[in-house]
Design brief:
This protein is an alpha+beta fold. Helix content is about 65%, strand content about 15%. The model has no long low-confidence stretch (mean pLDDT about 85).
Length: about 475
């Protein structure tokens, strides 16, 4: 029983601990904190950073080609049937040659005569068992392609780093736009709540006037419809905000079950603060420009690599081995092992490859030209994007100020119309029209506010300052 109680207690503690460990986290983030979180958790950013590590390992492989290559080997072989070879009987021929030259006579006292045909000898060379153990070394002395690869290592790392930075810029841009859109939704909800409050007050006043015989039932119904429309608008806005938060969490790499609270607000004042620094930008501030420039350097290395493939290559080779031959498998019985070794120099001189090298050089040169063309076109794009974003931002600020003034005016018109309505000098239709004008002005102001925020983000991205 004690054992069962301990077991149940352990399971309970584990279950409760796991439940608490899986509780959703609460994050109160500014836009910069959202960006910092995404740079650590966004899948595209993490993969881009892994590309840097992959390039580092590829560079290690390039470096390895310049190091000595040392290999050891051990080989043993059993020959059930040693190969038999047939060759002319030179032994008999040589023996008779000596006998004849020395004047040796046969048993009859006659000089020995050499036969004309000595035939063939069949003999096997080798043993039943052989063993060989050795080590070989090779070292590149000169290979132009390997040397170019060594020179291009740091440029390859820089290229991957700038590619990762460009990915971060895209993530920063998207997060900033979604963040400010959600911040704007707070204002939108506040405006809708204000409209609901005003309409609810108007409905209450209209009902009292209807009870006292000063208004018709139609006025009450019309105001009720207006209030319902505002309540539906609020629900639609809240649903859109919820979906926006889900999208922002996904982009940030944040667990969906976590809670996210946005602490930065969007106002006309902070949008215009330190807005534009006209003409103060450099192409090198853009990560995509730096990435493409490094791609051009890599293409230059590629051209050089293929050009150096025309030169001879030289390498040093050496080997040391021990060989043993036995008719019994007793290689470790103390019988001798025979040593062999060599040191050599290998020089490969390219003579003709079917014009392959020339084709590779031309292809690399054309690719370099394409990269340079893309770089020049990117400069034009950056100039266009900067000028366009400045124009868009200035127009957005003008429109934002106009819409803000329009909201103030529409609010005054509504307040005045409502006072007239309460005094019996205006109809429900007049109030509804004033409310509709105010709602339209508020909606246009929100659109103008978000357009100005987007224009500023686009400008910062265009100038490489985001």
């Amino acid at each position: 029983m004690r054992l069962m109680k301990c077991l149940w207690l352990t399971v309970l503690i584990f279950t409760v601990g796991k439940t608490f460990s899986q509780q959703p986290a609460l994050h109160e983030f500014s836009v910069q904190q959202c960006i910092d979180y995404a740079e650590k958790n966004n899948a595209a950013v993490k993969n881009a950073l892994l590309d840097v590590q992959l390039q580092q390992q590829q560079n290690r492989g390039i470096t390895a080609a310049a190091y000595p290559q040392i290999n050891g080997s051990f080989n043993t072989q059993y020959n059930p049937n040693v190969t038999v070879q047939t060759f002319p009987n030179f032994i008999g021929e040589a023996t008779y040659g000596v006998l004849v030259a020395e004047g040796v006579k046969d048993g009859s006292g006659n000089p020995i005569k050499s036969p004309t045909d000595f035939g063939f000898i069949e003999a096997s060379f080798g043993t039943k068992y052989t063993a060989n153990v050795g080590v070989t070394l090779s070292q590149i002395l000169f290979d132009g392609q390997v040397f170019v690869g060594l020179q291009a290592r740091q440029t390859s790392i820089d290229y991957r780093l700038q590619s990762a930075e460009y990915t971060k810029t895209l993530v920063r841009t998207n997060i900033s736009k979604i963040y400010y859109q959600l911040s704007l939704s707070k204002i939108q909800v506040q405006l809708v709540d204000a409209n609901i409050s005003r309409t609810d007050k108007l409905l209450s006043d209209t009902r009292e006037l209807y009870k006292n015989g000063f208004k018709e039932k139609l006025d009450v119904d019309r105001t009720s419809v207006q209030l319902t429309n505002f309540q539906s608008q609020k629900q639609t806005t809240l649903n859109s905000v919820s979906n926006g938060y889900l999208g922002l969490k996904l982009l940030m790499g944040m667990p969906i079950q976590d809670s996210l609270v946005l602490t930065d607000s969007i106002t006309a004042e902070n949008i215009q603060q330190n807005a534009l620094l006209l003409n103060e930008y450099k192409y090198e501030d853009r990560p995509d420009y730096r990435t493409l420039s490094l791609a051009g350097k890599l293409q230059e290395y590629n051209v050089r690599r293929y050009k150096l493939s025309r030169l001879p290559t030289a390498s040093l080779n050496a080997g040391y081995s021990k060989l043993a031959q036995r008719n019994k498998y007793d290689f470790f019985s103390g019988a001798p092992w025979f040593t062999s070794s060599y040191v050599g120099l290998t020089v490969n001189v390219p003579i003709f490859s079917g014009f392959l090298r020339d084709a590779n050089i031309k292809q690399a040169q054309l690719q370099l030209q394409q990269t340079n063309n893309s770089l020049n076109y990117l400069k034009l794009q950056i100039d266009e994007q900067v000028d366009s974003s400045i124009i868009s931002f200035n127009n957005a600020i003008i429109n934002l100020n106009n819409q803000k003034a329009n909201v103030d005016l529409a609010t005054q018109v509504y307040d005045l119309t409502k006072k007239k309505y309460e005094s019996g000098l205006a109809s429900t239709t007049d109030v509804s029209d004033a409310q509709a004008d105010l709602t339209t002005a508020q909606s246009n102001y929100l659109i103008g506010l978000y357009s100005a925020a987007l224009a500023k983000i686009d400008y910062l991205k265009a100038t490489g300052k985001l």
